[in-house]
């Protein structure tokens, strides 16, 4: 199942190289896919330079506080949000190149275009130019498409909005919004 894995295990921001981070993936194939799909894309006005590290693994070592107050090191190997941690989960995923259209799923049934606008405003990212909510796909949650003017806008929003906790109007547990790139050309 490793051929389907893209599991991100650990992330460590480099104190000695501001703006750089090391990301440990499940295997070499996942590293190759990350390089193929993400290298030379733009996020926040910066060109992503994704390459193989000289180090074989991340050593947690000493972490420090980043500008936003978050920790410089995070272990994702046990995260329940990881969609590649088992062969069954990995088989459900389709790896797509970054695009300006994101597929969303696991949103509240009553989700609206306005909900996405409010969340984007709250997080300080650009609003989608188009939102399409699929009707009748599930009785428990909703899914659909979100489109931005550019691929970099979609990449930036994915970084902030993936795994966002959306309020559940019918219960105590929130919906964990999931995002991935779509093959659709447009959301409308």
Describe the model.
The protein has 188 residues and is of the alpha+beta class. It has helices at 28-38, 87-92, 113-123, 151-161, and strands spanning 8-13, 21-25, 42-43, 46-47, 73-75, 101-107, 130-133, 142-147, 165-166, 175-176, 178-181. Strands 7-8-6-11 form a four-stranded antiparallel sheet, covered by helices on one side. The radius of gyration is 17 Å and the shape is globular. The N and C termini lie far apart (35 Å). Mean pLDDT is 87; it is low at 1-5.
Structure at a glance:
By secondary structure, the chain is of the alpha+beta class. The protein contains 4 helices and 11 strands.
Strand-residue fraction? 15-25%
**Secondary structure tally, helices:** 4
Low-confidence runs of at least 5 consecutive residues: 1-5
Structural class: alpha+beta
- N- to C-terminal distance: 35 Å
How many strands, which pairing sense, and closed or not: the largest β-sheet?
A: 4 strands, antiparallel
Show the helix and strand layout.
Elements lengths: L7 E6 L7 E5 L2 H11 L3 E2 L2 E2 L25 E3 L11 H6 L8 E7 L5 H11 L6 E4 L8 E6 L3 H11 L3 E2 L8 E2 L1 E4 L7
Antiparallel strand pairs: 1-2, 1-5, 3-4, 6-8, 6-11, 7-8, 9-10
Characteristic terms for this protein:
188 residues, alpha+beta
């Amino acid at each position: 199942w490793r051929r389907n894995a893209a599991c991100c295990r650990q992330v460590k921001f480099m104190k000695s190289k501001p703006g750089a981070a090391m990301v440990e993936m499940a295997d070499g194939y996942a590293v190759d896919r990350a390089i193929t799909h993400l290298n030379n894309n733009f996020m926040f006005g910066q060109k992503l330079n994704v390459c193989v590290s000289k180090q074989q693994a991340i050593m947690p070592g000493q972490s420090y506080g980043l500008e936003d107050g978050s920790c410089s090191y995070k272990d994702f190997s046990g995260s329940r949000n990881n969609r590649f941690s088992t062969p069954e989960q990995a088989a459900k995923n389709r790896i797509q190149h970054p695009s300006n259209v994101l597929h969303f799923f696991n949103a509240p049934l009553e989700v609206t275009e306005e909900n996405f606008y409010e969340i984007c405003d709250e997080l300080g990212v650009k609003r989608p130019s188009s939102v399409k909510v699929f009707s009748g796909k599930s009785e428990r949650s909703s899914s659909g498409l979100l489109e931005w003017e550019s691929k970099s806008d979609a990449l930036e929003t994915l970084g902030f909005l993936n795994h966002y906790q959306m309020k559940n109007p019918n219960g105590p547990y929130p919906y964990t919004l999931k995002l991935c790139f779509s093959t659709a050309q447009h959301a409308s």
